[in-house]
Each structure stands twice: as structure tokens, then as C-alpha cells.
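The freezer alarm interrupted the setup, so I double-checked each line after restarting. Inputs confirmed:
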Amino acid sequence: MATETVENYIKALYALCRESPSGEAGVVRLAQELGVTKGTATSMIKRLSLARLVKAEPYSGIALTAKGNKIALDVLRRHRVIETFLVRTLNLDWADVHEEAERLEHALSARILDRLDEFLGRPSTDPHGDPIPDAAGNVSETRSKPLAKCRARERVCIVRIMDQNRAFLKFVAESGLKPGANLVVHSVSTQGNSLTVQAVRGKPVTLSHSAAGKILVKIIS
Amino acid sequence: MATETVENYIKALYALCRESPSGEAGVVRLAQELGVTKGTATSMIKRLSLARLVKAEPYSGIALTAKGNKIALDVLRRHRVIETFLVRTLNLDWADVHEEAERLEHALSARILDRLDEFLGRPSTDPHGDPIPDAAGNVSETRSKPLAKCRARERVCIVRIMDQNRAFLKFVAESGLKPGANLVVHSVSTQGNSLTVQAVRGKPVTLSHSAAGKILVKIIS
DNA sequence: ATTAAAAGTTTGATTAGTCAAACTTATTTG
DNA sequence: CAAATAAGTTTGACTAATCAAACTTTTAAT
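Predicted 3D structure, all chains:
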């Protein structure tokens, strides 16, 4: 079994590879993400490379191997099942659960994970709308687009919030923009740097382009 | 915060001090308990002593300080709340939960612990009958005596099983001797090395003296 | 009261994970 | 394109936790 530290590196690499267009991660960003120096990250990458969890040539990009990917999905599954449990069963605040899950995800055995998953009714997404990989590592992502790309008068349903920042999540929740909420796009500013939406029984909310970019929606047919 | 390793040393020391008549623990037993060499245990004791968590002179007994005791009770609380959750909510087997709780107890924040405790209705004992210290570190142990000290025809209620061994717990459960079960002591062998008991709606079970010594009971008035 | 055994300590080495700082390679940008 | 900057690597040192093996002290036994 990978150590807690290794799991954290793998998880961070998974996220970085996702959001980078090349599909590869860099040492400096990785180090930032984990709060270590870049030298530390380099030496860890060397270890992961030796263990065949990542593919990395000196002075070039880093990518997960199939083996590394499997670990990433496993950690992600544990993380998201725990988040769901903390919100649904223990009534923890939406905005707080990320940090808590971060600590617990490494201590969960396969057996407990499965019991927890069963107890929760095998949820397909966590409270942020992030898909929960199944035990085999399959992820089914709902087709969606950023709210930022919507046009005026479109009716949409929020699918996912792509940000774990506590302040942002608190704002999103207070505006009634949690996953599952139905919205109408009121208006889009001419320069496209903000848009106003209204939840079914809520007040109109104006969002910056960057905020609307982190909210994924599907169009209601 | 103490590291996971430190928490484990403290917890083991707490148990050893309890069961020793002098109230002090020794390095060799401690090392055995934790699966490390005695040299390792010695050097850790030195560190704990420096951190004022234990009181220890070279070549003599080890005792927890007030500070060390507080940590021990905190870990014990986390351990026992988790065990209760695993058995009551996730339906894990009585005999398996100890090892699982061992891994989880170090990853539980105070906030989650309290929510879990609340969710479970603030239980006073875990599934083995071990008392759960409250958040302030108070433990209320039910007055009880070992089943081994009972006489024939006494009616008793099982309060606590003082052993985490899986095989023993499986045997105890299969014999219907879980905490809360009511028994009649049928007979006590002349040499006192075994005794036969019968649960209310169960078959008679014969227990060795050592097994009966690990089962704590209270007399039904 | 010696001496053998058990308990406890010390020493030197190892692995995981980390940092600071010097260094090298790649990428920008004037 | 050359110089500046950013990205990545290496080196030497450190802490936590561990082991094996030599060593010392205490305890038990003859």
C-alpha cells in the first residue's frame, strides 16, 4: 500500500494532469499544491517514477501511469464517499467537508469504504457534484458545460461545483446554487465578464465570469 | 498534536499501567505490545519523557503524566466511538472492529468525533462494554466483577468483555455472551478451573477460568 | 553471594519525508 | 539572439521512527 504522502502526491498529480491541456503536470505547481519545496517534489517524483506510478523524464512533464491512475481513482473514491457521508449523515457544513475528508481518506479500509457506500445507497456523486468512481475505478461524468458559456433565457440545472475553496462554497450555498438547483439565465453582460441568474424560488444573483466558469450545468429539456 | 506513533505508545502505556499492580509499565512489554524492538521503545520513552507525557527514570518503571493521561483518554474515546459506529451503523462484525478502529482513530477531528457521538446518541459504552470517556476525559465504569468469581445459582448480566482477540470475541458472540445478556451460573467446578453458565434463551456453555476472568458481570437484583 | 537470565540502554545504520541553497536547463522577452 | 526569469535538479543536512547488536543494570535462582 502507498503511504499517505504518496497518495497525496498521486492525487495532486491526477488533478493537475486533468486541468492541464497537455495532460502533464509540472514540479513547481505540484510542490505548490502540496505545500512543499520544489526540490522535495522532484525527489518524490523520482521515487514515484521508480515505483512505476508516474512517467517522467528529467526537465519535462509528469504523467500518471495506469497503476498511478488506479491509485488516484481509489483515493478519489474514498474522498468523495466520505464527503457524502459527512454532509448527508453527520450534517457537516458543505464548505468544511473537504479538509475533513482529506484527513480521513487515508485511514479507510476497503471493507469500511464499501459498507459506507452501501449505507449511503451507492451515491454516484458527492455533495459538490463530483462523480464518485465505482470500486473498479469507472467514473461516469454527467455531460455538462460551464454556466459561463450559457446564453440569456436558458434554463439549466446545476450539476457540479469545480472548486473546493471554502469561501466560494459558502457563497455558492448562500446563493442557492448547489448541485440540483434549477436556474434561469437572466442576462449576460455585453463584454461577457458577468452574468445574472435566478434560482426557481430565489433572488437574482450576479456572477463573475470566473465564478460562472466553475459552475457546471446541464440544459433542462 | 501528537503523531500517530506517539498516540499509539501513549495508548499502550495506558493499558499496561492499568493492568499492572504497581501502576507502572515496562519497556519490554511495551515494545511487545507495539511490535517494535525494546531499543526503539526506550528511545521513544526518552522522547515522551522530554515532552512531559510520561515520567520515567532510567532502569525503572514508566507512568503517564496528567498530560499523557489526557491524550490516552482522548484516543480511547475516539477508538470506542468509532467501534460503536462501525457495529451499530455499518453492521460490521463485532470481532473485526478493533483493528479497523485502530486505523481510523488517529484521523478523526474533534468536530467529526462530536458529530459521530451525537449521531449515535452519546453512547456510554462501546460494543464490548468498554466505557467511552466523555469529551472532558471522565470515564464512568460500571461496578462489576469477573464472571470467574461468581457462585452457582447467581443471576448476572454481562457488562464488559476485557479482550480484543478476534477468536475469543467470535466464541463469546456465538455463545450468546455479549454485553447486556442475562445469565444464570449453573455450576462451578470443584477446583474452580471452569464454570457453566446459561443465557436466558440459550444453551449451557462451559467456560475456562481464564475465559470467565475476562467477562465482567453485575449481579441482577 | 555469585552468577545466569531478564530488563533496559546505547550505538550506528537505515528509510521516508522534508528544507535551504546552489546549481542546471528551458523558456520568455526585450 | 542574448539576458533575464522561470522551471527543474542536486546536494547536504535534519527529524521521526525504526532495527540489530553490543552493552549495562537489575532481578531471580542456585
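Quick read of the result. Helices of chain A lie at 4-19, 27-34, 38-50, 66-88, 97-104, 110-119, 166-174, 209-213.
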